[in-house]
Structures are given as structure tokens and as C-alpha cells.
């Protein structure tokens, strides 16, 4: 009986070890989102570029677009920013959500690194990000013309990711035409 008691901690240790080992192989970019195929959460937040102007979901509707969650404190956001500028120059509609950031820093950032966004929503407290289920910046969503979220990507957008996002955007456009 006493020997069996010594095996209990070993069993617990091995069980925890298995779950930790399994966790090493999970890709955070593949985390599911409860928001897929749901409307963009309602919000009424200021524009970063025009602080006297309030933005809402209605401002995002009308065409298939990307919504990019970013912040100046995010090194990966800086890494992806030049690629977002390239996409915007190609005519891709991108809306920005400046997430838990200081407006002065964010405005300076966009002046320094250029602004790829049609509109930038200032989510200073992170409420919209919370409603979206944001894990951290950057995250990019594909929305359809009605403002429904169709896809979510966690991490930087680069040429490889863009191919996937572009295919999804084309599929969404085809489904709504």
C-alpha cells in the first residue's frame, strides 16, 4: 500500500509533463476564434487621425477589407508595417485598430512610417480588442462587405500570409457578388 502512494506523485509528474510537452507543439496562430462568421462587435470609438470624429461598425462596411490590430509598443507590428503599406498602395482596403496605445505615439508612428489604413480606430482601453478576442498585436481579420468576420490571422502579415489572406478575400468577394 505504501509503495502505491509513492507512485501517485510520479503519475502526476508524468501527466503534467505530457501536457507541457504537447503544448510546445501548438501554434498560437492557429488558435480558433469564436468571432468567425459573426458580425464585427459594435463600437463607438474615436478616430486616431481625426480625434473629434467617432467611428463605428458602419464605417467598416461596404467592401471586403482587412482589419489590422497594431500598436507602437509591438515590435512585430513594426516588422509588418512596410508590407501593409505595399498592400495599401495596391488598393487593398485596410482598417487599423490602434490597440492599448498612446495616441501621440501612434500618430507619430504613422507620420514616420506612413499610414496604410483607410481609417484608424483608437482602442485606447482595449475594449474593442477584448470584444474581438485579441490575444495580442498584431492580429489581422478579414471582414466581408456586411461587416462579418470571415477569418483571423495572429502574427505579422508578410508575403506568405498575404497569399492566404488574398485567397480568402477573393473567396469572400465571390460569395457576396
What's the main sheet like?
5 strands, mixed
Under CATH at level 1, the class stands as Alpha Beta
CATH superfamily: Glutaredoxin
Question: Portion of residues in helices?
Answer: 40-55%
H-E order: HEEEHEHEHEEH
**CATH fold category name:** Glutaredoxin
Beta-strand share of residues: 15-25%
The counted number of beta strands is 7
Secondary-structure-derived class? alpha/beta
CATH architecture: 3-Layer(aba) Sandwich
- The total tally of domains equals 1
What does this structure look like?
It is built from five helices and seven strands. By secondary structure, the chain is an alpha/beta fold. It has one domain: Glutaredoxin (3-Layer(aba) Sandwich), CATH 3.40.30. The longest helix is centred in the first third of the chain and has 22 residues.
Tags for this entry?
alpha/beta; Glutaredoxin; five-stranded mixed beta sheet
Secondary structure blueprint with pairings:
Layout: H1 2-23, E1 44-46, E2 54-56, E3 65-70, H2 75-89, E4 94-99, H3 103-113, E5 120-123, H4 127-132, E6 139-143, E7 149-154, H5 159-176
Parallel strand pairs: 3-4, 4-5
Antiparallel strand pairs: 1-2, 3-6, 6-7
Amino acid at each position: 500500500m505504501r509503495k502505491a502512494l509513492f507512485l501517485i506523485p510520479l503519475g502526476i509528474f508524468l501527466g503534467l509533463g505530457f501536457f507541457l510537452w504537447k503544448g510546445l507543439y501548438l501554434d498560437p496562430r492557429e488558435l480558433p476564434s469564436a468571432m468567425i462568421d459573426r458580425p464585427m462587435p459594435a463600437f463607438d470609438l474615436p478616430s486616431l487621425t481625426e480625434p473629434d470624429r467617432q467611428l463605428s461598425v458602419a464605417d467598416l462596411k461596404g467592401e471586403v477589407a482587412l482589419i489590422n490590430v497594431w500598436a507602437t509598443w509591438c515590435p512585430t507590428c513594426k516588422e509588418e508595417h512596410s508590407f501593409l503599406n505595399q498592400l495599401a498602395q495596391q488598393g487593398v482596403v485596410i482598417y487599423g485598430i490602434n490597440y492599448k496605445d498612446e495616441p501621440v505615439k501612434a500618430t507619430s508612428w504613422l507620420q514616420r512610417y506612413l499610414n496604410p489604413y483607410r481609417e484608424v480606430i483608437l482602442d485606447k482601453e482595449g475594449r474593442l480588442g477584448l470584444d474581438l478576442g485579441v490575444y495580442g498585436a498584431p492580429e489581422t481579420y478579414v471582414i466581408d462587405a456586411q461587416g462579418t468576420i470571415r477569418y483571423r490571422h495572429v502574427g505579422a502579415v508578410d508575403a506568405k500570409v498575404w497569399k492566404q489572406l488574398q485567397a480568402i478575400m477573393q473567396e469572400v468577394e465571390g460569395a457576396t457578388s
